[in-house]
Amino acid sequence: MDASTPIHHHLDQYYTTTMKKIFAATSFFSTVLLLLASSLFIQGVEGTIGVNYGTIANNLPPPAKVAQFLLESTIINRVRLFDTESETIKAFAHTGIAVTVTVPNDQIPHLTKLSIAQQWLKIYIQPHVPATNIVRILVGNEVLSTANKLFISSLVPAMQTLHTALVGASLDRRIQVSTPHSLGILSSSSPPSTGKFRQGYDTHVLKPLLNFLRATNSPFLINPYPYFGYSADTVDFALFRPNSGVFDVNTKLTYTNMLDAQLDAVFSAMKLLDFPDIEIVIAETGWPSKGDSAQVAVDTESAALYNRNLMEHVTSGVGTPLMPKRTFETYIFALFNEDLKPGPTCERNFGLFQPDMTPVYNIGILRATARSSIPMNPTPEPPVTPVYEPPQKGAKRWCLPKTGAEVETLQSNIDYVCGLGFDCRAIQEGGPCFLPNTVRAHAAFAMNLYYQATERNDYDCDFKQTGSITDVNPSYGKCKY
C-alpha cells in the first residue's frame, strides 16, 4: 500500500471476485468462540513482527519520541518507513530497531543511473549507518499496480543499480534491496494452487526481479490484506476464526484462513516461474478498527482479533499448506491512526495506537515494564525467603514459572498478562516487586496475577507449559502475591 495514495489498497477485480466465490460456500462456527480466539497466547513474536510507520497526519508525536516508545514500551523491533526522511531515520539511531526505508515511486527512473544511485546513498543512507540499523531499501511501493510504464520498466534496473552502489559502499551485506507488491500482480489466485502472475509482467518484470532477489539473497515482499477480499459470508475465514475450511481440489489441501490462501497463491505463481526458494515477507497487512456504517466486522474487536491471530499464526512455525513449517517476517499496518489520509473512514483507522501513543486496542505488543529484559549489568538478586503456609483444604495456591523456563517465553508471559490490562505497576521501577529486576521474577508476579484473577483452574497457570502451581507463598518484603 502506498502511504501517499488516497485509497489504502485496491485488489484487482478478478482476485476479489474469485476469492469471494470460492469462500462463499464455507460454513462457520459460532462467534461465541471469539473470546477464546482473541485470548491466544503470543510467543516468539519479538524477532519477526514489525510495524509500518506512516505519517500522513498532523498530530503525531516527534520521531524521537516514537522510536523511544517502540524500544522501551513494545516488543516491536522492526519498522518500515515510507520515505527516507532524515529526522525519522536518525531517531532510530542506537536503538537496534531494524529499519526499512522506501524510495518514492517517482524517483525510480533516476536511480537507473549509477552516479545518481551513488549520490542517493550518500545523501539518504550513509550518514545514518551504522548508528541506525537500516536493513532494507524498498524501491517504490506496489509499482506494478501504478500502471506507469516508466516506473515499471525502470523498477528492476533501479534495484540492480542501487545494489551496485551498495556494493561500492561496502553496504551490500548489511542492506538488502527489494520492492513490495499488491495482490494485483496475480491474474489467478483461487484456488491457491492456480496462482499465476499477470501475463506480460510475469516474464518481462517479475522473472528478472526474482532473479535479482535470488542473486542478492533478498526476499519477495507482498501486501496481502484479507480485509480487502472478505465478504459477510467469509468474515470468519478472514479473521482466523474457527471455520470448516476451504478445500483446494488440485492439491487436496484445506485452508482455514484467507491469509494462507493469499500467501500460497503468491507462492504458486513464484513456483510457476521456478522461484519457490525465495523467502516471502509480508510487507503490509492489517485490519481497520473503524469504518463506514454499512461495513461488517470493522470495529476494534475485529481489528484486535485479526492482528492478534496474525501474530500468533505467522510466528507459530506452522506455515501455510504449501509452505509448511515456515515463519514469516510480518509488518502490521499501521503504527498510528493517520487523520489526514483521504478516502473512506477505514483509511484513517488502521493504527495500533492513537497519536498520543495509547493503544487503540490490545494485541499483546506492550511490554509490562520499560526494558524489563535481562539487565546488561544485573545486580545480584536478594535472597527471597518464601513464607511457608501448610496446605489446607481450599487453601490458596500460587502460579510461578517452572525451573528452566526460557527467558523469551517468560517475557512473552509478562507482555501478555500486562497487555490484557492487569495492574502490573508492582513490577515497574519503584514498585514493591520491581526488585529483583529479572524477567523470571517479574514473570512470577504477572503469571500469578493472571492466575489469581481467573478461576484458579490448573489450565490458568499453563502459559504454554511454563507455569507451575505451588502452595508455598512467594511473597517477600513488601511484595505481596
TrEMBL record:
<comment type="similarity">
    <text>Belongs to the glycosyl hydrolase 17 family.</text>
</comment>
<protein>
    <recommendedName>
        <fullName>glucan endo-1,3-beta-D-glucosidase</fullName>
        <ecNumber>3.2.1.39</ecNumber>
    </recommendedName>
</protein>
<keyword id="KW-0326">Glycosidase</keyword>
<keyword id="KW-0812">Transmembrane</keyword>
<keyword id="KW-1133">Transmembrane helix</keyword>
<dbReference type="GO" id="GO:0005886">
    <property type="term" value="C:plasma membrane"/>
</dbReference>
<keyword id="KW-0336">GPI-anchor</keyword>
<keyword id="KW-0378">Hydrolase</keyword>
<keyword id="KW-1015">Disulfide bond</keyword>
<keyword id="KW-0611">Plant defense</keyword>
<feature type="transmembrane region" description="Helical">
    <location>
        <begin position="22"/>
        <end position="42"/>
    </location>
</feature>
<keyword id="KW-0449">Lipoprotein</keyword>
<dbReference type="InterPro" id="IPR012946">
    <property type="entry name" value="X8"/>
</dbReference>
<dbReference type="Pfam" id="PF07983">
    <property type="entry name" value="X8"/>
</dbReference>
<dbReference type="GO" id="GO:0098552">
    <property type="term" value="C:side of membrane"/>
</dbReference>
<dbReference type="GO" id="GO:0005975">
    <property type="term" value="P:carbohydrate metabolic process"/>
</dbReference>
<dbReference type="InterPro" id="IPR017853">
    <property type="entry name" value="GH"/>
</dbReference>
<keyword id="KW-0732">Signal</keyword>
<dbReference type="InterPro" id="IPR000490">
    <property type="entry name" value="Glyco_hydro_17"/>
</dbReference>
<keyword id="KW-0472">Membrane</keyword>
<dbReference type="Pfam" id="PF00332">
    <property type="entry name" value="Glyco_hydro_17"/>
</dbReference>
<dbReference type="GO" id="GO:0042973">
    <property type="term" value="F:glucan endo-1,3-beta-D-glucosidase activity"/>
</dbReference>
<dbReference type="GO" id="GO:0006952">
    <property type="term" value="P:defense response"/>
</dbReference>
<feature type="domain" description="X8">
    <location>
        <begin position="397"/>
        <end position="481"/>
    </location>
</feature>
<dbReference type="InterPro" id="IPR044965">
    <property type="entry name" value="Glyco_hydro_17_plant"/>
</dbReference>
<keyword id="KW-0325">Glycoprotein</keyword>
